[in-house]
């Protein structure tokens, strides 16, 4: 009899312990979470809007409805927009007009970042899309046009390249070029702008020698970067920040030269998902109101995303309020 009573007590204790540990159960949807704006939904730019909150979910994320802060775009990662390329260039050596050239090209089928890969790829010469190339020897950088690449949107990958070609001419130095501040942006019709190359490191610069066996762009090459070497295979110090320099040296009558500067591949349709502001976490006290100031006039679909989370999952609910902001 004692053994049976002891067994029952152990079972009751075990069940009680399981109830206290809810990590094995799916979280409840926070249906009791409510949002209201009183006493009005129309404001002027610069006014403080107070949102009243009911319920106590584990987490609350606020989407104001402004550019880059739309709830409906929180998982959007791809959409065709207007793709614009901008960079700065300077040339500081060589006899004008010179026989050497710097061309701007793009490819949608580059497979390898070496001479064989470049030769096998199909390249589109878009040098003429930029009307603002440097025309004088100067250390001052000249900003390019905002070059439209939207016609390449259907491609799943695009590589951008600067191709230097120099000719051997007696008593003439080949051109020395510098490139800096390259940016590529995908701008959508709703005004959202997503940077595709927003830093030197993210652009993934690689140089490749095609002729003359002298790697003269001072960035890494295929399988050689600043992370594993100080110099490239030609002994040129690898640059880790702008400007990028093509330096053929100061000697005259240098042999014919061809060197490529390549970016990593990018999908021009890439979009940065819209982001909300986390205004409550699971460790915070219950939140009963939230204040926000809209600085520009417009009609904003404001969304509060409330979430209950457990080890094995989460459940959420969206509450929307429309706010009109006058000038």
Strand content: 35-45%
H/E series, N to C?
HEEEEEEHEEEEEEHEEEEEEE
Runs with pLDDT <50, length 5+?
1-20
Percent of residues in helices: under 10%
Helix count equals 3
Tell me, briefly, the overall form.
Answer: elongated
The average pLDDT value, as a whole number, equals 89
> How many domain units?
2
Compact overview of the structure:
With 327 residues, the protein is mostly beta strands. The chain folds into 2 domains: 27-75 and 273-326, Immunoglobulins (Immunoglobulin-like, Sandwich); 82-262, no CATH class. The chain has helices at 2-20, 115-120, 200-203; strands at 34-37, 42-44, 48-54, 59-63, 82-93, 101-107, 123-125, 142-143, 147-148, 159-166, 176-187, 193-197, 206-211, 244-246, 257-262, 277-280, 289-293, 298-310, 313-326.
């Amino acid at each position: 009899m004692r053994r049976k009573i002891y067994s029952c007590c152990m079972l009751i204790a075990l069940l009680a312990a399981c109830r206290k540990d809810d990590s094995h159960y799916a979280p409840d949807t926070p249906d009791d979470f409510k949002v209201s704006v009183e006493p009005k939904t129309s404001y002027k730019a610069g006014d403080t809007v107070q949102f009243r909150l009911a319920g106590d979910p584990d987490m609350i994320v606020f989407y104001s409805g402004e550019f880059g802060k739309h709830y409906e775009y929180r998982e959007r990662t791809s959409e065709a927009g207007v793709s614009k390329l901008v960079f700065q260039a300077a040339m500081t050596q060589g006899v004008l007009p010179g026989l050497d050239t710097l061309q701007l090209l793009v490819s949608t089928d580059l497979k390898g970042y070496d001479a064989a890969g470049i030769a096998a790829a199909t390249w589109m010469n878009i040098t003429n899309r930029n009307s603002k190339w440097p025309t004088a020897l100067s250390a001052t950088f000249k900003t390019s046009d905002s070059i439209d690449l939207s016609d390449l949107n259907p491609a799943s990958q695009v590589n951008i390249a600067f191709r230097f070609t120099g000719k051997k001419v007696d008593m003439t130095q080949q051109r020395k070029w510098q490139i800096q501040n390259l940016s590529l942006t995908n701008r959508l019709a709703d005004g959202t702008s997503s940077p595709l190359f927003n830093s030197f490191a993210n652009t993934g610069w690689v140089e490749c020698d095609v002729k003359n066996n002298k790697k003269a762009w001072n960035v890494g090459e295929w399988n050689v970067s600043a992370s594993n070497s100080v110099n490239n295979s030609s002994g040129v110090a690898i640059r880790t920040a702008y400007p990028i320099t093509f330096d053929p040296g100061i000697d005259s009558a240098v042999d014919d030269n061809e060197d490529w500067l390549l970016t990593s591949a990018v999908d021009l349709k890439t979009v940065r998902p819209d982001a909300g502001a986390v205004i409550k976490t699971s460790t915070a006290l219950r939140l009963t109101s939230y204040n926000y100031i809209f600085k520009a006039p417009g009609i904003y679909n404001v969304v509060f995303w409330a979430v209950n989370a457990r080890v094995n999952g989460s459940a959420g609910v969206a509450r929307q309020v429309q706010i009109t902001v006058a000038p």
